[in-house]
Amino acid sequence: MRASGKLAVLLTLPWLAAGCASTVTPANQAITAVDETSGYRRINNDNGKRIGDTLILLSFSGGGTRAAALSYGVMQELRDSYVQSDNAEVRLLDEVDVISSVSGGSFTAAYYGLYREDLFTNYESAFLRQDVQSTLVRKLFSPGYWFNSAFSGFDRTEMAIDYYDRSIFNGATFADLEAQGPPFIDINATDLTSGMRFTFNQDLFDIICSDLSSMKVARAVTASSAVPVAFPTIVLENHSDQCDISQTQAYQILTEKREFSETQEQLVENMLSYRDTESRRYIHLVDGGISDNLGLRTMIDRLEGLGDDRFHVLRERGIKNILLILVNAAVHRDSFIEQSPKKPKPGTTMSAYIDSQMKRYDNETIERMRTNVEHFQHIADQENLPLKIFFSEVSFDHIQLSDANSYLNNMPTTLELNNNEVDQLIAAGRMLLRHEPSFQAYMERNNGRLAKEAMSETEICKAFQYEGCADLAEE
């Protein structure tokens, strides 16, 4: 999530334009009635999809192009992996039910949600191998930008939205995303006021009486990746005084009398607070990495929302496997602070502080997921369900070769990497998932195999400039 490199130029511009805060008309349209049978919501997302006996949930973390390329490598590996499901061989990629994403990971998630197989033919040229950051900086200094900024409130965020919309997402809206059917794409941003997660789905937009279908996907992705200060907030207008949601299923769930965890209570309270238009007339959104840099808490909420008393749903659907894959592009850079008695510079101190806090929060999130997996596996065993839950983490920490580990962990958080770096990240995504112990256990349980055309171990090694991969990834 942290800005670096050329993006630092953006950070200086608020000083150049001091006193010129922009005001942009919010792009979300109001609705006067809620129709729960339409709109981009999970319950409407099946679209005739064959259910199968496996639920696959993916989480794509933040981390700029580094996160986008790593998650793209994982998607390639899922495309080339096959398992037995309901007496038929299926491709794992086709079995994915939900993708939750934040920041850099949202580019991959949204692109796949919209364009499916074209991800593997167009995504690299459309985004991964583009100098996105340099392009944004050039646009920032163009006369056209300053003219629009002065007279129309066209700020840096709107400039990014326009660029992503034209160059990456081709004007697509959430109506286009809905038309594609599953998997459901949870694009996550952060509510700046509350610090809570804000997920772009119609159930949440019902609460603010707004239509998500007409909103550009590029706007949601920009909100998910809008690093504070570098990019002004994405602003939504709260129209909750224009429709009644008291009879909707989502509202009933939010207000029903049952025990919630402390975190769930906070989330519910924040969502219900949107009904107060006097105090919350406008919602300001920033980078989703602030509230959850892993994109994992949406998945945790889905598991906890299932609840012990609703576990029968899995039995009724004949679910035998739940595969949870976290693509964690977080890095742990080499630190030289402890090698010198000199006091670090303010920027170095702040960077180290942010990194340490994010690492602690990420670790707590992962531990919370593992606790939930163990809890529900215990219930499944008690209920004699043929269910196994697998939690796989794709992380640079699992690369054993020290120089490769150090190289990947010191990659910057930018929207611009060179081709060699992109190649290595794609290969790392494939290799790390392929060798991840929990994923291997899932593949073995379901008679999995790798397609003949899949990237070979030798090709993966070449991406890292090694002759052999025996010690590259742990198993």
Automatic annotation (TrEMBL):
GO biological process, alphabetically ordered: lipid catabolic process
Ranges spanned by the short sequence motif DGA/G, renumbered to the chain: 287-289
InterPro entries: Acyl_Trfase/lysoPLipase, NTE, PNPLA_dom
Keyword list, A-Z: Hydrolase, Lipid degradation, Lipid metabolism, Signal
GO molecular function, one term: hydrolase activity
Residue ranges constituting the PNPLA domain according to the UniProt record: 58-300
Segment forming the signal sequence: 1-17
Active site, renumbered: S103 (nucleophile), D287 (proton acceptor)
Protein name: Patatin-like phospholipase family protein
Species in which this protein is naturally found: Halioglobus maricola
